[in-house]
Every structure is written in C-alpha cells, then in structure tokens.
Specification:
globular; Pnp Oxidase, Chain A; six-stranded antiparallel beta barrel; 155 residues; 7 strands
Length: 155
C-alpha cells in the first residue's frame, strides 16, 4: 500500500465523524447513523439504549459500518471515497472506559454532556473486514494490520 492510499483513508476518517450502522433487526437489516471516534484501530460508538440499533446490537453484535466522504457540490456521488467495515461491537471494558471516554470526547467534544445520561453506553467496534473505495477504479480490501497503522495516533 502506498502512502497516498494511507493518506486518503486518514483524510476520510478526519473529515467524517458520522458512520452509518447496519444492524440486524427483527425484520431484517436496519440502518441508522452514529458519530464515531477512533482509538488505535478500534472505533468507539456512544449509543443510547433507547435507540433501536442498540437493541439490535445487544441481540446480534455483528454489524456493518460505512463511513462516507461528505458530498460537495460538483462532485459525483459515485466517486466519493468511502469505507465499508464489518465486525463486532462490544461494550468498552471497565478498565479501558476512562481512556476511551477521553478519546471520544477529544474527537467529539459536543458529546461530553451525553456521558452523564444514564441511557448511553460506550461501545467498541472491532473490524474484521474493511473495504475501501477511493473513487472510480480505486477499490481494495484493507488488511487489518494496515488498518491499525491508519488509525493510530496520527489520525
């Protein structure tokens, strides 16, 4: 993988802090959106237990997550860079919680007040498959060892 490719993925992750979740509901796949933060290869999701996607995750922790480049005028929506990830979600362990909370708040400061709400939980998403589309003719799977490097301290 070239440094250009790494830079493109990192740029997407810096510009986009909203992920589109695909969870398994009672009637099939359900989609929703949620802000996310990056913590050394782990994606942090701060979700309300009142949300349907959280109930779905509790029943089946395997989810899909898509991160898209924000649409801009004049850009073809077909050529927008995006990441499609599949993996599992779990609660952040108690011993990691303070550090993960700090990372989340650092990246999404507006969420700080939500940590005082009793219905919110902090989850970690561990990707097992990652597919990158960088535009027309630019698509590839991202090896998990590369993902770790893409989402380290420099993002």
């Amino acid at each position: 993988m070239t440094n250009d490719y790494k830079q493109e993925v990192q740029t997407l992750l810096v510009r986009s802090k909203i992920g589109f979740l695909a969870t398994q509901g009672e009637w099939g796949v359900e989609t929703s959106m949620a802000p996310f933060a990056l913590d050394h290869g782990m994606i942090l999701l701060h979700l309300s237990t009142l949300a349907k996607h959280t109930a779905n995750i509790e029943n089946n922790p395997r989810i899909g997550l898509m991160v898209c480049t924000p649409e801009t005028e004049g850009a073809s929506p077909l050529a927008l860079p995006r990441l499609s990830l599949q993996g599992e979600v779990s609660l952040v362990p108690e011993d990691r919680y303070p550090a993960a909370q700090a990372v989340y708040i650092q990246q999404i400061p507006d969420a700080e007040m939500l940590f005082s709400f009793a219905d919110f939980r902090l989850f970690q998403f561990s990707a097992s498959r990652i597919h990158w589309v960088g535009g027309f003719g630019k698509a590839r799977n991202v090896p998990l060892d590369q993902w770790q490097k893409f989402t380290g301290d420099e993002v």
